[in-house]
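Weekly modeling sync, notes
Attendees: S.R. (lead), two postdocs, one rotation student

Agenda item 3: backlog of single-chain predictions. S.R. asked that every request posted to the team notebook include the full sequence so nobody has to chase files. The rotation student volunteered to paste the first one in as an example of the format we agreed on. Action items at the bottom.

Example entry:
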Amino acid sequence: MPVNSQSIRVATFNVSMEATNYMEPSQAATADVLSKHLLSSRSQQISHIAEVIQRVQPDIILLNEFDYSEQSNKAVMAFRRNYLNSAKNGAPSIDYPYFYSAPVNTGIDSGLDLDRDGIASGTKGDAFGFGLFPGHYGMVVLSKYPIQFDNIRSFQHFLWKDMPNNLMASIKDENGRSYYTQQAQQILRLSSKSHWDIPIKIGNHTIHILASHPTPPVFDGPENRNGKRNHDEIRFWTDYLSTSEKSAYIYDDTGKRGGFNGKHFVIAGDLNASPDEGDGIKNGIKGLLAHPLVNALVVPKSAGGQRHTPDNQYAATHTADWAMRADYVLPSKTLNVTTSGIFWPKSDEPLFGLIKDRKSSSDHRLVWVDIEMAD
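Predicted structure, as returned to the notebook:
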């Protein structure tokens, strides 16, 4: 490592810390469900998630599927205090003095019958993003380094129709007519959760964490509305990192226009897409991986993933137990990548119990990349 440099580990982890994972049979789904488990400090699943994070020791980590509410700051503080700060089974404790959580589109009532079931229910398929309550399947970024809160850009309210050549216009029903009404097309938001540009100060440098969690390209019908939305949610980052002309259409939640204005970045999140497998429209993720500013050459791998589906040629790169690469940590080419990996112990290893199924922790694996920061 060069003199006056430091190694930073950046990770992403879909932690499945969402209400339906903890609800009693008669209990309603609300953001308070997760909060109560965080305050109790007795959840084995959350303890396992904390231990995975402790064993990998990332400096910056995006957590997908961490329910958001107006009390999210208290929830994150409880997660830190009751789980991350407490050493698990010999793994060292870890703390993140800086974190960012914000509203997402899941569960927010659109006022329209978006899923065309004849009922404008306000949640689930009729919300701006699928969810049982506002904030369901939310996100949080945890950091050991100072977050530059005044310079964060969020794109929760960006309208899908405002993306040039968007795929919403091509979503048709069985009669060849537009699946979404004209009224719906005027209000639909692109992001199923949100897109965030979070600058973090590391020494003399700033790294921008570009965080998102596009909708899964399934759970729809032949119109492929989720597949096309997933494609465009991923394409958003491709355009955001492109020339000022190509990104000029983009506006954030404060009204500021234009794309990325920095040097170093890391794209992080469960993108629900693979260039080689799955049901998604592959041009979206392929375009992002091929972007001239993105270093996609270093692909994290694990022996556990290889063991999980040994006959699959892509198995070592899988990040979810349903056998696909879905989760990404993609640094800019301005950053020197030294190592990377996926936390996926083999079935005969002692730590396998942490990830053996979704009830143990999550159906996704923590993915990390080490980057070298030189002064």
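Discussion: group reviewed the output briefly. The CA atoms of residues 85 and 242 lie 40 Å apart.
Action items: rotation student to repeat for the remaining queue; S.R. to check formatting next week.
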